[in-house]
Write a structure and sequence with these properties.
The structure holds two protein chains of two kinds. By secondary structure, chain A is of the alpha+beta class. Chain A has helices at about 10-40, 45-55, 55-70, 165-175; strands spanning about 80, 85-90, 95-100, 110-115, 125-130, 140, 145-155, 155-160, 180-185, 195. In chain A, the strands form two sheets. Chain A has a five-stranded antiparallel beta sheet. A four-stranded antiparallel beta sheet of chain A has the order 1-2-3-4, with helices on one face. By secondary structure, chain B is an alpha+beta fold. In chain B, the strands form nine sheets. A six-stranded parallel beta sheet of chain B has the order 11-10-12-14-15-16. A five-stranded antiparallel beta sheet of chain B has the order 2-3-9-8-5, with no helix packed on it. In chain B, strands 23, 24, 26, 29 and 31 form a five-stranded antiparallel beta sheet that branches. In chain B, helix 2 runs parallel beside helix 5 (about 465-480). Classes of the chains: A alpha+beta, B alpha+beta. At the A-B interface, helix 3, strand 3, strand 4, strand 7 and strand 8 of A face helix 3, strand 13, helix 4 and helix 5 of B. Strand 10 (about 195) of chain A pairs antiparallel with strand 13 of chain B, so a sheet runs across the interface.
Chain lengths: ~200, ~700
């Protein structure tokens, strides 16, 4: 009777199967351990969590794609870090803020904003003036010109300052020389974006 | 092009032409074609686009005998008549009969028989008894040298020759917002049939937005786009290169900004030219549109005002402001808004239609902090119609902001990869716009598919930016149907005819540290019997139902703004260990009906994201005007500026529409989250009421 030939495959296949199984178990345990650590730990290391959030490329990518589809962010796929770890910038001026939510410190939130249209104060050079003495408006002083661009009724006027950067100087001048019931600088907080 | 199944086309050719006077401005039909209103305060609806039943000369008959036909007018929903009555729309297609003639549905009296057709294409057949022509065209095309024969008084009579031209729009079948058949629109899954604007019947009834001018306040759009140019009117505003002195004259062109595509997509949804065998179809495919590049300008107060005092019947504002304090809009802009609703359109008022916002998922999957539409200060006034977005499944789009300022919802789509976005016009070229080679949304949007290899259309447009132009287009149809409607009548009709979405939608709360924090009440039916939902406003816009309702609508009496009761000065604390909430009551004796309620409140708090505000009407109707966990959840706004610890809220609620203003109103301030406390300082209620 011929002796049965030893076959290596009966050693290799179970060994590889066992190794693969251990690998899956290891990965799974690590994943749950990480999630549990995030979920259960009352004291979170903010920067560590931030790093984890930023390293979650799927989440970042989703935020970027959604914001692109809404017309908020640019097409750029390149993300560059600025301002430490709290913010990163897409092409141009669009930013994604990573904000810490007091109520959910374990869950940094991704918020997309466009800073290119923010901070428009003085860009338009428009101020809104309420006065019964518009005829006393100083039209030209120290290289600055003021002109009524629109009469809104009820003694309210939109006054354009040229150059726009002279708005603070114009405001001081108006307060000093005119009887003004109310005066405000336009477009301080407006930041209109596509929706 | 996907032909409609079961298309029945009834065309009988009698006569050789029709007078131009038959093509007058269309209107909503009253009973038997009689306008329903007769007094100054009632609806003076214009007659519908009916077909004349008499005095129609024959179409080149070869015999001298002229049949004494007894045709009856067709149901208005079955024939579309544009500037010439030789055009008939059925389903996807527009049939044009030449020479110009009258196309009508009629019933044969028996005088004519043995109808036959000569040289008919294989898809077109004729009923020998009734003369009805029916067919499903496989595609657009022109079919010439057709003629009809019939027998009358033992005479064989021939009508013709004539031709039929069939046209449609190649991507119409992808536009689920117009007709939702469950199509995928190039995404991986389809929507839910019939969850759309119900616009097809309106188009077939003859409404196309003709002579309605819509200002597209956006990034500026491509006025030369092949599918827009025909509807573009030169009432543009170039807010970048123009000046106030020259009326901001010029033609805005999209810049290189990353969102420059935006205006072109919006314009296409409103008024892409219909039935031209090119691209897509707008909701109002023959409305006039003008380009205003407000978003890309410096957004100054002059430009903000200029757009709403312009010559536009409707202003489409697919934009929103940053969600930061202060919450009030400029008093001057508000005054202008109020003014144009009583002065423009011959005193009937401009319709200002605005996007609710895309912030419901502002935390993504990492948390829960739904941005409220009420956090956009431009949504909090009664003169703006705020629009939420629906997915192709007919429910709230994942991103659509919620809030008591919403009025209506319309199709806005999802992201186009797994579920449908909107298909609309785009900037030319695969290196600019939303449709471009680098897009990973779908093959249509990247120009891979031959049908869009020039990237002139996109299948990835979405947002409340998409829902808003859908609503604007629908309102254009409504104004065309009845030009007498005021801005408030339009709002009323939209509210009364809206389709309730998720009718069993429950209240929603968020579990936090063992507490259930309520942020949505679901559908709330108020004392006037009108249901409202912070997710949807009054529901899904249904233009077909709105046009029908408008037939019997009596114009609303004038409305004015009133303060309810007195301004309350307060120092009540809330969010404390002993009292998580505090309320103030305002007693109103105003004997009027509420349309929109406005709250002004001065509040101190160190963390405004925790603050929830609710209003309870005298009838007991609740409305959350500021949900907890809103996106004020931080110590700084989106630009990095610190919040002050005392802020003024300016919020509105439409949930009390139709309720009496008199009685005791309760305003409740709530903070269920530990750590921070707040204090009410001032509370004031106003109402637009009639």
């Amino acid at each position: 009777m011929k002796a049965k030939k030893f076959k290596w495959k009966w050693i290799i296949i179970p060994t590889m199967g066992f190794a693969f199984g251990m690998f899956v178990i290891h990965i799974t345990r690590e994943k749950f351990a990480r999630e549990n650590a995030l979920k259960n730990s009352p004291e979170k290391n903010w920067s560590q969590l931030l790093d984890q959030t930023l390293s979650n490329q799927n989440k970042v990518r989703t935020a970027v794609e959604q914001s692109q589809a809404r017309g908020i962010a640019s097409e750029s796929q390149t993300i560059n870090f600025t301002n430490g770890k709290s913010r990163f910038v897409l092409k141009g001026n669009e930013i994604i803020n990573i904000e810490k939510d007091k109520n959910k410190p374990e869950q940094p939130r991704l918020a997309v904003a466009n800073i290119s249209t923010g901070k428009k104060a003085f860009i338009s050079g428009e101020i809104i003036l309420e006065t019964q003495e518009i005829s006393r408006l100083p039209n030209d002083f120290d290289g600055t010109t003021l002109s009524v661009s629109r009469e809104l009724g009820n003694n309210k006027y939109i006054v354009t300052v040229n150059p726009p950067t002279d708005v603070p100087k114009a405001v001081d001048k108006l307060r000093a020389e005119m009887a003004i019931e109310s005066l405000k600088v336009d477009v301080v907080d407006r930041e209109i974006q596509p929706r | 092009m996907k032909p409609l199944i079961n298309l029945i086309l009834f065309i009988v050719f009698i006569g050789s032409g029709c007078s131009k006077t038959d093509n007058t401005k269309k209107g909503l039909p009253g009973n038997d074609g009689v306008p329903t209103g007769s007094s100054g305060t009632t609806n003076e609806a214009v007659n519908p686009p009916t077909v004349p039943t008499t005095d129609v000369p024959p179409l080149v008959p070869t015999e001298t005998a002229t049949p004494q036909q007894t045709a009856t007018p067709p149901p208005s929903t079955e024939i579309l008549l544009f500037e010439a009555e030789n055009q008939v729309a059925y389903g996807d297609f527009l049939f044009t009969v030449n020479p110009q003639t009258v196309a009508r549905n009629w019933s044969n009296s028996g005088s004519f028989s043995n109808w036959r057709g000569d040289n008919f294409p294989i898809w077109l057949s004729i009923n020998s008894t009734t003369g009805q022509i029916s067919g499903v065209p496989p595609s657009s095309g022109t079919f010439e040298n057709l003629s009809l024969r019939y027998t009358s008084n033992n005479q064989d009579i021939q009508i013709g020759p004539f031709s039929i031209t069939v046209k449609s729009d190649p991507f119409f079948s992808d536009q689920w917002g117009l007709v939702n058949t469950g199509q995928r629109a190039y995404s991986q899954s389809g929507g839910k049939p019939n969850e759309d604007l119900h616009v097809l019947a309106s188009h077939q009834a003859g409404y196309s937005g003709k002579n309605i001018l819509i200002g597209v306040s956006d990034t500026g759009f491509d006025v030369n786009h092949e599918d827009l140019a025909e509807n573009v009117k030169p009432y543009h505003r170039d807010y970048i290169n123009g000046t106030l002195a020259n009326g901001y004259s010029g033609v805005p062109t999209p810049t290189s900004a990353s969102y420059a595509f935006h205006g072109t997509g919006v314009a296409g949804l409103i008024a892409a030219v219909g039935w031209n065998d090119i691209g897509v179809r707008g909701v109002a495919p023959r409305a006039n549109i003008a380009s205003l590049n407000f978003i890309e300008s410096d957004q100054s107060i002059n430009k903000l005002i200029d757009q709403v005092i312009g010559p536009y019947d409707i202003i489409n504002q697919s934009w929103g402001a940053s969600n930061s304090f202060p919450m009030s809009i400029e008093a001057e802009y508000r005054d202008i808004l109020k003014s144009v609703t009583s002065t423009q359109r011959n005193g009937r008022g401009t319709l200002v239609v605005k996007a609710a916002g895309n912030g419901y998922l502002s935390c993504g999957s990492s948390g829960f902090c739904p941005e409220s539409a009420n956090q956009d200060q431009y949504n909090n006034n009664p003169y703006t119609i705020v629009v939420g977005a629906l997915s192709a499944q007919g429910v709230k789009a994942s991103y659509s902001s919620i809030g008591s300022s919403l009025w209506i919802s319309a199709p806005g789509g999802e992201f186009g990869t797994t579920t449908p976005a909107m298909v609309t016009t785009d900037l030319y070229g695969c290196d600019v716009g939303l449709s471009r080679s680098s897009s990973t949304t779908n093959d249509f949007n990247s120009g891979v598919l031959a049908i869009n290899n020039l990237c002139r259309y996109t299948s990835a447009f979405n947002g409340t930016s998409s829902a808003t132009p859908m609503a604007s287009g629908a309102i254009a149809l409504l104004l065309e149907g009845n030009p007498q409607l005021t801005w408030r009548d339009v709002k009323h009709i939209l509210a009364k005819t809206a389709r309730r979405i998720e009718p069993s939608s429950p209240a929603m709360s968020y579990s936090y540290q063992g507490q259930q924090i309520e942020f949505s009440l679901g559908w709330v039916t108020n004392a006037a019997g009108i249901a409202f939902h912070n997710h949807y406003g009054f529901g899904a816009l249904d233009i077909s139902a709105a046009l029908t309702y408008a037939r019997s609508h009596t114009l609303l009496p004038p409305a004015t703004e009133h303060q309810l009761g007195n301004t309350i000065t307060s120092s009540k604390a809330f969010g404390t260990s002993s009292a998580i909430s505090a309320t103030e009551a305002i007693v109103s004796t105003l004997n009027k009906t509420v349309e929109t309620l406005e709250l002004e409140a001065l509040v101190s708090h160190s963390y405004f994201g925790d603050v929830a505000i609710e209003i309870i009407s005298p009838a007991g109707t609740r409305s959350i005007v500021m949900p907890p966990f809103n996106t004020y959840s931080g110590t700084r706004d989106g630009l990095g500026n610190p919040y002050a610890t005392t802020q003024t809220y300016n919020l509105i609620s439409n949930a009390f529409y139709g309720e009496p203003a008199a009685g005791t109103w309760t305003v409740k301030f709530l903070d269920q989250i530990p750590d921070d406390e707040g204090q009410i300082q001032m509370v004031k209620l106003k109402a637009l009421a009639h």
